[in-house]
Amino acid sequence: MTTLTTPLEKQRTGAAAGPRPRRRAADGRRASGRPSVAWAVPGLLFFGLFAVVPMGLAVYLSFTSWDGLTSPTPVGLDNWTRLFGDPEFLQAARLSALLTVVSWLFQTPVALLLGVWAAGRQRNRAVLSAVFFLPLLLSTTAISVLFHALLDPNFGVVKEIGPWFGIDPNILGTSTGALLTVAFVGGWQFMPFHTLIYQGGMRQIPQVLYQAAAIDGAGPLRQFFSITLPQLKNTVTTSSVLMIVGSLTYFDTVLIMTKGGPGTDTTIVPYLMYRVGFQSYDLGYASAVATALVVVATGLSLLMVRFSGFGAMRSTREGM
Amino acid sequence: MSAHSTAARPGRRPRRLGNPVAGAGALVWLVVVLLPLYTLLSSSLTRQDQALSGNPLAPPADPTLDNYGFVLDSGFLTLMGNTAVVAVATVALVLVFSVPVAYVAVRTRSGASMAVFRTFLLGVAIPAQAVVVPLYMLIAEMGMYDTLLAIILPTAAFAMPVAVLVLTSTMRDISEELYEAMALDGARPLRMLWTLTVPMSRAGISTVVIFSALQAWNGFLFPLILTQSEEQRVLTLGLFNFMGQFGLNVPALLAAVVLSVIPIFTVYLFARRALINGLMGVGGK
Question: Where in the cell is it found (chain B) (predicted)?
Fold first, then answer.
């Protein structure tokens, strides 16, 4: 009875309360006890000051020339026209795109399979999952330092096991090898995270679907492609967005392992930004590079989020 | 037939497609994960003169802790202390700012609260690199360049989007009836937050604590750009520095890596479940 009349009640109290935004009306059982939006203001201001405002400033600085010491001087579109004609930037953009594609192709199938596998509840899976998780605890710096040592052509592990797989021990000295290494090291580090995402998505698939499919005689492969994959659609999106933004912003790995080399063959956009900004002190141009990066990264994420409806506010338990 | 065999083992869930393939893949991945970690440990225990000549896969013939002593004598504890300060302060700031935001996002169904939530959702996509130049300017203007605060504030801000997402998804599962019951008793939002939402969100909060501590502990770019002096140096920068400083002393370098990881590993041992459950929630549908 109460539930039936509630919408009406809400309407009435809403009308009676007039323009007051707070709905703690005396009789409104459901409407009461909700916090004011003002509660979110401190968090929003803090986030705004150190993340959103700098984003705006970056756009402003991209229209200036600034050496970091004197004040920025507006130069109009100079940085931007320079950007699109700069062979170094174009190469960096191409390398970033390549790195993103390679990372996605490498990480998604592995993480998906590992996640589906790890969603089972046997004890050995739990133990293995705990081991798989370890790389995520190491900092990118630690991982880069570690792999730099492992890949040393003179005394690293690659000298021993590289030849088994036809890998040149001097892998960091070759342009393709260095880029693939950066992608691999990134995957090594972030795979556990994506595995977990898939594992979580997997556990939320209603078992009834599999039971029904089994009754209909669908085999494991069929079940995987007809139930698991479609049900994991949003999970794939989430994971892919994070992967794409992640690999567009690889930086520590490149700085520590390859310094953008050999030559400029691993100088991806973030590293170029760092070099231009904090080694050549051309901070206006660096801001243009950074702005281009964020436009691409958010553009891609927005597109994917919109495409999949991931942003919708839904309870994870709804409908179960 | 298969239905019978699954019914016979109640602990096991039916189907588990692609198991042989995924299982074999899991074993391969186990090697890929463990081999570098094994080499990390074994090299850090190897004498420097043997490290350059021996097979890096063989266990150290003559294990030693000297490398660890050497690293600890090279100012490692300062790095550790600075990093701990950064991590604790970051976690505190993230919680203080994110909990109310998530609470509002879940409990207030207004356009404004959705807008707040969306802001943070989009915030996930802002790469730190994109703002580091203006942050450098902002931090310098605020007179905080080369202080630990210069690392803490942006790190906390950048940990907030994920924190809000995790907290929101935990808080969403608290049943409406509990709030209604409290409302009937005349509880105000603050009391509900404190006595209902926060205790019921313990899992999400633990995740956020570990997650932001990890980010602070492992952050590299902000310290690199926003600090300079040795006194303000954090672990990651220290490792980077050791790389140049120790030259060919790879065992010492790797010992430093091991030392830098120990605190995080310890936390992980105690809080594994919270972290993993929370992270899984991020990808939930």
Answer: Cell membrane
